[in-house]
Amino acid sequence: MLAPLPLAQACCTPLTRATLPAEDAVGLARTLKALADPARLRLLSLVAATEDSEACVCDLTDVLGLSQATVSHHLKVLVDAGFLSRTKRGTWAYYRLVPGSLDTVASSSRPSEA
Questions:
Q1: pTM for this one?
Q2: Which residues form the HTH arsR-type domain (predicted)?
Q3: Which ranges in the chain belong to alpha helices (H)?
Q4: For the chain, how many structural domains are there in total?
Q5: What is the 3-state composition of the chain as percent helix, strand, coil, each rounded to the nearest 5?
Q6: Is residue 13 part of a domain?
Q7: What end-to-end distance do the CA atoms of the chain give, in Å?
Q8: Which residues of the chain have pLDDT under 50?
């Protein structure tokens, strides 16, 4: 006679806290996609490092070694994602770091307790 088989054990650890809801995951992925570019990360760093956390697009092109059109495209992506705000002064656009915008990414990637 064969010995009885042991009861099956759970294959995974049970969840102990809330997970990221699907709609939050979509929004976070969109936000992280905006950050997932070396030029955009450098732009955020450059703007954040300037006095008053504000820079003119004219000051950013030479530092990055990219064309004005390419820098403007990257800045628009960062504005659309909520990391930078844009104000127009004459013919130039100035970009400012949105206070707390990077904090929001850090906190939204950690699911809250249920």
A1: 0.73
A2: 20-114
A3: 22-35, 38-49, 57-64, 68-80, 101-108
A4: 1
A5: 50, 15, 35
A6: no
A7: 48
A8: 114
